[in-house]
Amino acid sequence: MSHPDQETLVGLALGDEHDTALAAHVQDCPDCRGEVDRTRTLLAGADQLTGGVELERPPDHVWEAVRQELAADDRPRPVAARPRRPWWQPAAAAVAGLAVGVAATIGVAATNDDGPTPVPKPDPTTVARGDVTPFSAGSTTTGTAQVVRRDGARTLDVDLSGTPAPRDDYVQTWLFDPKTNEMIAIGVMDGDSSSFPIPASVDLDTYTSVDISLEPLDGNPAHSATSLARGELRPS
Amino acid sequence: MVDWSDGALTDESTYAVGKRFCSGDESALAEAYERWSPLVYTIAVRATTDRSMADDVAQQVFVKAWRSHEQFDPDRRPLPAWLVGITRHVLADLAQQRDRERRLTDRLARQHPEAPVHEPDSVVDAVVISEGLAQVEQPRRHILELAFFSGLTHAQISHRLELPLGTVKSHIRRGLLQLRDVVEVTDEPS
Predict the structure, then answer these.
(1) Assuming Cys at both sites, which of A188, A207, A209, B25 could form a disulfide with B20, CB separation 3.0 to 4.6 Å?
(2) What is the pLDDT of residue B68?
(3) In B, which residues are within 8 Å of A41 by CB distance?
(4) pTM score, two decimals?
(5) Closest to A10 (Cβ–Cβ): which among B33, B39, B173?
(6) Which residues lie closer than 8 Å to A231 by C-beta, 6 or more apart?
């Protein structure tokens, strides 16, 4: 059977078509099924309507708040005015950046109150750490995650407890950006404690949080959506 | 695709405002707020059922929209459709956050999780459908309104309007296709 036209598929979504050959075709044809689903979604929205919607104007203070929030974007902020060493950067980069930092500081020195650039700490140094706590229902996984700098390279050291013994699954560590939920797979846990290299290209100012997931052995490399525990890394 | 060149949600000046908006003209933000903040706010009030939260949602939508004005492309969709898309994102984030907080509270209180169903998407769709109806021509609009609001069957509508049943059915089907396009253009990734 060739594809039915759009109007016929709308009729099917309305429950207004009773042709069995048509129903059988749609059952097997992903395109037509998608069409019917699109209309069903629309009908679900229309179901919420009990009459015309009377639009309502927001109170005046909302526009005031929008303007104020956006005006703050335009003001130069003290933090942005002086290039500071990001806390995750290796010491060598900080020293190289120092001359630039000093030159740029002169103009805004009066607004700065956050003190001199800290002396680089010796290796190995914990540059950030965070506790991970149970995230999904029923999880008892807790632990810590630390970003440690050794010889200029960063590793993520993870220590867990309360994780169930693996059966048809394994435990994986991810870094993620809580603003966008974008995830980077960092590595598979070997027991309760593992240490993983963090690629130099990963910006820990963006990927500020750690996710511990339970992954089924299904050959699918994407996140399973079962997060045993999560935590935020904070500079230390 | 629906012809967005006329109707209540858009008219030819919508494109012009969109053009100025994406080029960073601040007067276009004020104009966009003037024209479409009621659409955004009404969706927010219905989805959150909390006025102070709705204030906050409307504020976030316009702040986000302005901060990313360079990503808006007036040739891809009308500005109000894009604003509704941002409203969807803000409401989804809010629902997720509430959900997380509720799960935490449930765990702490060891209560059975209560599950108030929160489907911001169909609320958004409902408001957009209602606005989209205004741009459907007659008699199709009237037929759709009877189908949506009065609960009349197609046969009853045909009887009431003294139109052949086939004509009523065809108007409803074409009208739904038209509305579907209006709603979906607000739900594309930005």
Answers:
(1) B25
(2) 93
(3) 125
(4) 0.55
(5) B173
(6) A130, A131, A132, A133, A144, A145, A209, A210
